[in-house]
Amino acid sequence: MTMPLCTINPDLKESMRKFRFRRATTNAAIIMKVDQVTSEIILEEEVEGLEDAEALRSSIPDTQPRYVLISWKIEHSDGRVSFPMAFIFTTPRDCQPQLQMMYAGSYNYVVKECELTKVFQIRDLEELDEEWIQTNLNK
């Protein structure tokens, strides 16, 4: 049996487009999940005003894979402030193999649709801390 490639819900595509062009000056994230029934990638939650990495981690389930699009405040050494965006694929080691395959099979498609160059994969949500964000988004 082969796993179908998931499609992206049109409403999610619009949310992603608006997110890329947002002008807000707060940390934010779009959390996406695969609907196993429809084989569609849908918006699980859009979070604005995240205080820190802990708030981001608490918005992401630690037992199921998720695609996460973030915009995070980075303070550069020369005083500039930027809000780079990144795509993060969280895939816990102990989740259902069928679910992992659905996410892995759709990964490249979702990355392409996000149109971002900062793309990361995380196995353990504990890795996603402020230091990790600052280091990886500051590249």
TrEMBL record:
CDD domains the UniProt entry points to: ADF_GMF-beta_like
Gene Ontology biological process: actin filament debranching; negative regulation of Arp2/3 complex-mediated actin nucleation
Domain of life from the UniProt record: Eukaryota
Primary location recorded for the protein, binned into one broad class: cytoplasm
TM annotation in the entry: none
Keywords, ordered alphabetically: Cytoplasm, Nucleus
Record flagged with keyword Nucleus: yes
UniProt similarity note: Belongs to the actin-binding proteins ADF family. GMF subfamily.
Protein name: ADF-H domain-containing protein
Organism the protein comes from: Scylla olivacea (Orange mud crab)
